[in-house]
Design goal:
The chain is an alpha/beta fold and about 230 residues long. The protein has a single domain, classed as Metallo-beta-lactamase, Chain A (4-Layer Sandwich). It contains seven helices and 13 strands. The strands form two sheets. It has a seven-stranded mixed beta sheet with strand order 1-2-3-4-5-6-7. Strand 3 and strand 4 form a beta hairpin. Helix 6 packs antiparallel against helix 7. The protein is globular and about 40 Å long.
Amino acid sequence: MKQERKIADGVYIIGGPDISHAEDATSFIVDCHEELIMIDSGAGRTSHQLVENIRDLDMDPAGISTLILTHCHIDHIGSAPYFKEKFGCTVVTHDLDADAVEKGDPVATAAGMYGTTFPPTQIDTRLFGERGTLSFGKEQIHWIHTPGHTPGSLSLYCDRGDKRILFGQDIHGPFLTSFGSDIDAWKRSMMKLLDLEADILCEGHFGIFYSKERVKAYIMDYLARY
């Protein structure tokens, strides 16, 4: 199980349709040695399963210092209140999606589409602007504002060894007026991701793509559709 969950050195998948719950987008742990960083948190129905999956990797979920939400949809933010309350982690997202999380907006979070509700949850750190770097001890996770699916969508990447790992959640969309989607902004965002020349893509719903060629092909395929 541990080997199957490992994506790269210190990077693990802990949630997703075949791992935690069918409604969950993929979620990840990045081991930064002194602390654990969690990326997205599933839809919220099986928070305890995410915890068990972390423990199965011989990691202590109490070591999660930061939970980064790539955007405001329920399948990515659902367990954020649980992890914030239970482990005291700092919740981070882009400013343009933060209000939806803090208000528990049933439309902007898509909670209504999932037949559930999301409790208003405070964002501890709002990210502003186009890009930046979050430092955790000697490790760094870089973020890029990649609007299109939602106004505040983020993509993250980190370099481990000779591999660049890109967390490009929901590259595929969908694009709905109720989400505040913007196809033209999304196309510009995809060009930013192509410029990274990532070796590994961790996508929100359709798996992990290994090799620069596969990452590029995946992004280009969706660009050709719109």
